[in-house]
Amino acid sequence: MKHTLKSIFSICLVFAFLLAHAQETTGKKPIPVVKKETNSVIEKEPTSKTKAEKEPTVVPDNSFANAQALPQDIKNDTVVAPKTNRYGLRLGVDLYKLTRGLYDKDYKGIELVGDYRFTKKYFLAAELGTEDKTTDDSRLNFTTKGSYLKVGFDYNGYENWLDMENIISIGLRYGFSTFSQELNTFRIYNTSQYFGESTINNSGDKFSGLTASWIEVVAGLKAKVFNNVFVGFSLRLNTLVSNKKPNNFDNLYIPGFNRTYNGNFGVGFNYTVTYFVPLYKKKVVPTIQKKATSSKK
Fold first, then answer.
1. How far apart are alpha carbons 50 and 31 in whole angstroms?
2. Phi-psi bin for 281: left (phi > 0), alpha (psi -120 to 50), beta?
């Protein structure tokens, strides 16, 4: 009985070894090659390099279907298929100015925005608007009416992938405004507290033919939410270049520039929705990425 168990154990061990060896050699089965001349079958050992490794790997892209064929001598390279960039005009409106009149009875205004993409990264940009605002200060109550125009450019620093068209930009504007001021009421500043606060004086003085110009630094973003529809937000820092002031009064609010602080400094922002009108397309030239080759010792 003892010898029988040893024999069975030895047979099982040999069988397990043969089975493991067969599994190791399964992937190395010779590849049959048929010769048409003699119809004979010749066994050919697998080579270290296959046809797929020798030919360049092409990333499929429908937009590159009509591109020219690559040279035949390009080996071991990966060809990244290009994407298509759209160029055109984007038009929209500033939602902040458009809806502000619904909750602020002292404000009426509208601003139209637009940009034109003329290179991959640069956009020509412009804003055109009108404002009618009454400012009620502790000393003054005045109404400003006028229109303005801003022109400049935006630079898109965001690198999109696939067919995305989002924008994270920084830009520059030159603004010009023509407007009028009307002083409604005012208080005379009284340094002596003995007589108490001065009363409100009605004025009605009007100052027309006023102008101002400024330089504006813009930082903003635009995101594509639907097909050709974008929403955007921007922050603006302004500094006055010229400012035609009326006699005995100051331009405390300028259409397009907003409230003036410390004489020449101003800030602003807008929230826009725009629609993109594509005019033409450009395909990005495909790039060839070299594969790293390791030297054999």
1. 13
2. beta
